[in-house]
Amino acid sequence: QVQLQESGPGLVKPSQTLSLTCIVSGDSITSTLNYWSWVRQPPGKGLEWVGQISRSGNTYYSPSLKNRASISRDTAKNQFTLQLNSVTPEDTGMYYCARLEATWYSFDSWGQGTQVTVSS
To answer: Residue 85: is it exposed, middle or buried by C-beta count within 10 angstroms (0-12/13-18/19+)?
Structure first.
C-alpha cells in the first residue's frame, strides 16, 4: 500500500521560497507509470493542481505557477520536492502530495497534507 508524507515549514515570509518534501513508501517514484504530484487548497477554495513529475523526471506545471514552481526528486530516498519562489499570502493553504495513476489519470493516493502560511 502506497503512503505519502509531506514535510516542510508551516510558516514562510513573503518573497521567500517555500520548500516541501514528499516521502513515498510502498511504491517507487522511478519504476511505475504513475506521476507524483503536488496539489494545494487555499482557505475556502477548491483544490488546485500545482505540478507533477514523471518516473523519468519530466516535470509539468500549472500555467499559473510555472514561473515560480519547481519539482525535483531524490531517487535514492524515493522522495520528491516542491519549491515555490517569491511566495505571497495568496500561496497560503494546505499542500498535498499525491499519486496520479496513469491508467485512468486520477489521483488514487494522497498524503495527509501540510499547512503553509505565508505571512511576515
So the answer is: middle
